Known about the structure:
Elements: H1 2-6, H2 13-26, H3 31-37, H4 43-49, H5 54-74
Helix pairs in contact: 3-4
Amino acid sequence: MICPRAGPGDVRLRDLRHAFASDAIMAGVPLGYVGKLLCHRQLSTTERDAHISEATLRDAANVAARRIEGKTNDG
């Protein structure tokens, strides 16, 4: 088996899948695409597996706020 030879300690395949989902979502890959890559049948599974950092959430809120500000200033 690969894991014992690589020596990752207590890392499980599930941990790697969660890390993949989280990194992909934070890199801007749409949730549906990540779910398909992980062979999830339901988006709720992907939502549960992806852990989004506070910094990424803050950046998303700032993007939305700038867009709202632009709409209110223009008209």
